[in-house]
Structure formats: structure tokens, C-alpha cells
């Protein structure tokens, strides 16, 4: 084989390889996402009990944050990744009542619906549920324990759509485990872009201790949670 045909063959092989890798990545990620959603589906009815055993603080902490931030109890709130509706239960205790939820998992939403703490419940993965919502609909979008949990959970790619649903001057409040922020799949450059475009600004980043207990097999020994408050411009 001449050098030229070697080169041609290598190019063809590389392009076929890239194409098959791309397909494999897509298959892997949709497979992992399906596995993740199966886990939530099978686990849904036991979720609230399990969460209380592990002393997960997300729902109470985020509701406290919202209560400290706003005085008006009639504001419209969207809980992104609402799961079984734990955040709404705390918000109700503080006197908020205009709460909608969005989540990718129908079983989790069914349990949330049965609690009767939220009005509209919207099904959708990542920003698919958000796309069903009109612009400037909410005063606050909040999210606890959903962002950055794994590569198949929502990431900053959803931020633009979230901001679109929030009124100018409203807030996006995100609570997560601090250590998740250093995972390779977290793309913070999207936040920087949105800041440059004057879509949002970061008002505060508040770490706190006691996100939840560690799991016995967990390597990450940190238990620091973090609450981001973004203002939509
Ligand atoms: C750990 S639960 C947290 C639920 C609730 N926020 C809480 O604090 O109890 C994470 C939720 O994210 C949802 N979820 C996972 N991946 C998602 C995705 N890609 N898009 C939208 N929701 C997703 C799951 O269905 C689940 O209800």
C-alpha cells in the first residue's frame, strides 16, 4: 500500500470509528438514563421514607431560603425536579400555595400529585418540561437535590430555559451537594455565558453543613450542601 492510500484508509477508518463512538456514546447515555429512571420508578414509593432515614436536608433548606428571600406568599413557584413533592410540603408550611412541579419521572409525579400540595405537574426530561411553560411565568424556580447528581441528571444546559420561565427580577434557587460541582460533566461555562448576556446574575453561594448522611460505600466523605441564588435580569 502506498503512503497516500494508507492515509486515505486511515482517514476513512477514523471517520467510521468516530461515527460508531458517537452512536455508542448516545446509546450509553440513553441506557444510563433509562437505568436511572427505572431506579426512581421502582424506588418512588419508598423515596420519602429513605430520604428521612438519610437525613437529607435539601427540601427544608431550600424552602427556608425562599421564605427568607421573599415576603409575598402569593408568588408563583416552580419546583424543578420536584420528585415526590417534598419541597412543596415545606413551602406550604411557610404559607406559599402557588406551586407547580416538573420532573422526568411519572411515578414520582403521581406521588407528588397524591399529596395535593402542588397545582400543575409537568412531565419532561431536562428542559423538555420547561418548554411546555410560557415565558415569565414564575417568580421563583427552585430545585433541590436534582442538578448535577450524575451525568444523566439535569445540568447547566437547562439554565437558559429555566431563566426564560422566570419573570425579570425573579430568582432561580438551586441546592446541591457541593462536591458534585467538581464532577467532569458539570459545565459552568454556560453560567458565565448567561452572565455575560445579562440573562442572570449570581446573588449568593451559600455552603452549609449537613446535606445528608454518607452512604456506607460512598467515597466522598463531604457533607456540605450549597445554595445558589441567581437573579434573572
Ligand atoms: C433525588 S430526586 C430529588 C427530588 C426532590 N427535589 C427532593 O429534593 O426530594 C431527583 C429527581 O430528579 C428527577 N430527574 C432525574 N433526571 C432528570 C432529568 N434528566 N430531567 C428532569 N428530571 C430528572 C428524578 O426523576 C427525581 O425525581
Describe the structure.
- With about 230 residues, this protein is α/β, with parallel strands linked by helices.
- It is built from 6 helices and 7 strands, in the order H-H-E-H-E-H-E-E-H-E-H-E-E.
- It has helices at about 5-55, 60-70, 85-95, 105-115, 160-165, 190-195; strands spanning about 75-80, 100-105, 120-125, 140-145, 165-175, 200-210, 225-230.
- A 7-stranded mixed beta sheet has the order 3-2-1-4-5-7-6, with helices on both faces.
- Strand 2 (about 100-105), helix 4 and strand 3 form a beta-alpha-beta unit.
- Helix 1 (about 5-55) runs parallel beside helix 4 and helix 2 crosses helix 3 (about 85-95).
- S-adenosylmethionine (SAM) binds near residues 40, 82, 103, 146 and 154.
- GO terms for molecular function: methyltransferase activity.
- This is Methyltransferase GWCH70_2453.
> How many beta-strand elements?
7
Element pattern in H and E: HHEHEHEEHEHEE
Look at the helices and sheets and give the structural class: alpha/beta
Cα end-to-end separation: 62 Å
Average per-residue pLDDT, rounded, comes to 90
Oligomer: single chain
Radius of gyration: 20 Å
The fraction of residues assigned to DSSP E strands is 15-25%
Shape: globular
Q: How many DSSP H or I helices?
A: 6
Uncertain stretches: none
Spatially, the strands of the biggest sheet line up as 3-2-1-4-5-7-6
Query: Which ligands are bound?
Result: S-adenosylmethionine
Helix content: 40-55%
| Sheet of most strands | 7 strands, mixed
